[in-house]
Write the structure tokens for this entry.
Amino acid sequence: MERSRWSYRATDLTGDLSAGVSVAAVAVPVGLAYAAIIGLPPQAGLYSAILPVAAYAVFGPSRILVGPDTATCILVGATLAQLGLTTIEERTQVAAVLALIVGVFCLAGSALRLGVVANFLSKPILTGYLVGVAATLFVGQYTSLTGVPVGSHGIVAPTIELLRKLQQIHGPTLAIGVALFVVIRVLKHLVPRFPGAVAVLVLGIGLSWMLDLSAAGLPVVGEIPRSLPLPPTTLPPVDWSVLILDALGITVVSFSSGIVTARSFAPQLGQPVDPNRELRGFAAANIAAALTQGFPVTGADSRTAVSISAGGRTRLAALISALALAIMILFLHKPLALLPMAALGAILASAAMDLMDLRGLWRLREVSRFELLLGVLTAVSVVAFGVMNGIMIAMAASLLHLLRLASTPRDALLGVIPGVPGLHKLHRHPDAVPVPDLLIYLFEGSPLFLNAARLKRRALRAVRRFPHPIRWFVLDASVMVELDSTAHDELRALIAELRQQGITFVLAGGHGRFRAVVERSGLAREIGPDHVFETTDEAVAALQRIPVPDTRARPDRAATIRSN
């Protein structure tokens, strides 16, 4: 059970200290690498892991940690490129403004209780999106790992460009990058809980110092200011329509990523996840990032995992990590300046491999082939059309999938199995037979404008194909909870057409607003009080009181409706 928000025991201090220092050590290479993705100075990645972490610890609802995120950083980088910002100063200022806008959007979303937006990004969409982002991220490390300038976008074009420039590969850069990449992958395989990024950080700095890699032509991080940041005071001219629209996309993606992190670690932290309170915590973290020349942040799964594995027990672990990172910037800035960019490329390439959950994507087929196709579509869209366009395609695909499900509910005809209680679907149970004089039609969805015509069409087709005499048409509404005006009118039309054929319409079941609309609109009076029942079993008992015949004659199987 979750303890009080600010309760603390002295026995937690050792674990929190260990976790805080471990998280700070991991945050250094990760922060530097993410700043490189966006095209910001190295310190921006470190600043984004200090005050934002403390702000979330104070205002957030859970013990996850926040910080830079792969998908969010790629979006920020794409936005800065779209705005045509070229100087480091301009990019730093606009990245901070983006963080501020994202923070305001999160705060507004929390006030308006828009946390439900996270539910629109289904698992296939998120899985496919992350696969696409991971592939893009991996290809983006070609330059860092080889020293070859690659200007193409996507996956195929950069790969072809690199192959054409093989003679330009810088041998020392490739050797250092590949060696450090192998180190981090081997450590992950042999010691999964060991922070391999820290090992690469130490090895990279050590090699740079001993071999003077900068003199050999290897790019290094360079000087990191020995100071803590101040809020930006100026802003270059920008297209605010682009800035705000992109900030909205960044908000959706970063919030969704953060919610996934919170949900993933909720069982280990013993805390429930409240999306609206998470929005408030992310708002505080992003506003703090804006005030310290950082960039948008979200839930950080790797650092949260490090904190838990190192023994972190309370929010104090996050506060200690922020303090430890600030101390490292102030007193270890010279060693950090020696870190080769190839080391950052190795860290990011490894992170891309971890992010690319191809097995998870393939496992979607076990649930639905359509969801597998949806995931693949999302991944391909991100790669082929860019991150922002990929997000829009993913969300559109998700909504189209939802509309498809809502517009084509399954349906079936029901009957009885002699000697077995209850009603059963005729197409699933070979022993089931229709109830004499009744056609019992189950529509597995609420009648709405999306599916109203389908309900009427399928119901009348069932009547035409039913091989037995029909006195009553029983609509099993046991799963119906909504009824809009379009579907209401279609039901009236169905009742009228059945009446012309000498068939009486019977309504069985229904809940909530569905029954309220049926009563309020007068539809219940039109059906007749003797033909409206609470359950389908009650309707069958009232309409057909003669025993089920002993004959085992089967209806024509072509006449039954198969769920589709």
User: Anything to note?
Assistant: The longest strand covers residues 411-417. The CA atoms of residues 214 and 220 lie 6 Å apart. The beta strands are 66-67, 298-299, 411-417, 420-425, 437-443, 470-476, 504-508, 532-533. DSSP finds 24 helices and eight strands in the chain.
